[in-house]
Amino acid sequence: MSKTRQPATKTAPTAKRSKRAAQKGVEKARSAATDDAVWSDAEVKPFWEAKRLSQMTADEWDSLCDGCGQCCLNKIEEEDTGRIYLTRLSCSLLDIDSCRCKDYTNRFQRMPDCLSIDMKAVKKLKWLPESCAYRRLNEGRGLAWWHPLISGDPDTVHQAGVSVRDWARSEAGVPLDEIERYIIGEATS
Ligand code: SF4
Ligand code: SF4
Predict the structure, then answer these.
(1) Which residues on neighbouring strands pair with residue 174, listed in sequence order?
(2) How many domains does the chain have?
(3) Whether the CB of 118 sits within 6 Å of ligand 1
(4) Which of 7, 19, 27, 37 could serve as 32's disulfide partner, Cβ 3.0–4.6 Å?
């Protein structure tokens, strides 16, 4: 298997917002969402039910990121088949305990392969976890009970075992030729 280390990340609805970008804006956006922005139509539906992903504002988009940290894990792509395998090695800039980027503002400068999770990425990236809010909404599955926008508590993503907090380890110090040892499975499509 030939490998390509691919720290993945997240974010943003438009190409300029990155997924992690999402994270930073999450709390602010969640706050706004919880107050008034959430109730965005006359039917009193929350915005994630009333709008399509493509219709969401930047703050709404950002607030959808549940902070699981899964897209900040390294992946290995098999050259011959194009199959993508997930590892439990996280980008070295991920704070595994909080599942937040340690330098969100400068993430693209610090990690050139940090990806933006925008609408295009949501449609294209087959390795986005099934739990990812963007993937869920794009597939018409709605948000889960543990999503902070539903629970009102950012810790529920950890309590539900959805985040990488309890099992990821940093890629720091791991030689490229050893990352195969940390494969945890093939990405779902
Ligand atoms: S995988 Fe998790 S951290 Fe990444 S964009 Fe989706 S919800 Fe946010
Ligand atoms: S720089 Fe690393 S930790 Fe930060 S958002 Fe990008 S992949 Fe995640």
Answers:
(1) none
(2) 1
(3) no
(4) 37
